[in-house]
Amino acid sequence: MTVVLILFFVVLAMVIPLAFRTRDPLDLLDPISYFLLTHFVFFFVGIAYASRYDEVVPIQTSVCLMIYLGLLGFVSGVVIGDLLTGADAARPRAYSLARLDSSYVLAAWLVFVLGISFLGLYGWRAGFVDWLGAGGFDDYRVQVRKGQGWIAILSIAFVTVGALLLSTYYLFRRDRAVLAWAIATVGAVGLLLLGNRAPAVELLVMQLVFWCVSRWGKLPLALAGSAAAAMLLAVALLGVVRQDAGVSQEMILVKLLWRPFVNIQNFQTVVDAYPSGIDYEYGGTLVKDLRVLLPGYQPNYGTWLKEELGMRFTGGGITVTYLGEAFANLGFYGILLLPVIVGTFMAMLSSVLRKVRHYHAFLPVAAVFAISSKAIVSSGILTPALYTLLPMSIALVFHFVAHELLRTSAREHASVEPVA
Fold it and tell me: Which of 88, 177, 211, 362 is the most exposed place for a label (fewest CB within 10 A)?
């Protein structure tokens, strides 16, 4: 079986470059690049040292093969999507500052301030978490959010989108870059108070991408490597603090190794559960995720599965991964179908975004789609749409409407002749 794994790795090494025939692997504003980078780091690399955790959850060779097949299917879908859209390797045109007027900036500040207001409302109604003093932090951060989750979701969406909108304006004016970083830092610290690491890290990652685009038009390889190492270290450190495990080099190393492996473990858990313990869902996972929109306690699929399996770990539900969701619904057929569908859709989305990204005003839109797309790797199909794409789209629409109203008001005011 080791020979088969090596063969799959060789095939992947040959096929993956096809996905980047018309795009930059480090272009994190492209949903395909961000998805594949996330997949490789957080849902592939851990295979190399999976045996380290055999006493916790032994990873079957078949699970490793399905992860390979998932990657291969996704890349195949990207190639199909590129063929359907006629994608080419043309570089984007020079960025245009059109539409980035004073009304744009004022509307962006409205979005950001509204996000901070949502944070304040959340803190008033639920209380902020204490990263340094709360024992049993993982359970505590989940308990305080019950009934207040919608405020936290809107806080994340409006703070993130607002900060990126402002960065779009200030970073491309060299004398205002410090202000842009200050806004992003305030936003990231505020998001940490909600008890989650990912939103704060994602905001800073996109801030770095915007800054690099404003300076060099792309993310340099050396800087990307250094930033990735720093972000992983920060995530590991915050994970140690969050679990009140005592900060030490050993615990940080444990967290560094655990994060790229946990999705593989979760996928193995799903494979073990279906169909031996639970019948295939045949679309039921999507129904469970949609039920969160109903009143009362409606656990999403990850939380439902955790409860169904009697799992007792701290924090929220299990991150089932998109391959886990595919397997839970259709078994091995889902592994063959879903990655191809996701890859094709993302290639078509990428084609559309590349046609409009030469306008600065569309950079935050590209960032929202990239953040939402990469979340599919860990969270499945519908959860990122409900908790990331939808609320961030609401923030973008709010900005668009506010911008147009402010521009119209400014034009009408300017057209009024002064009375002598």
Answer: 88
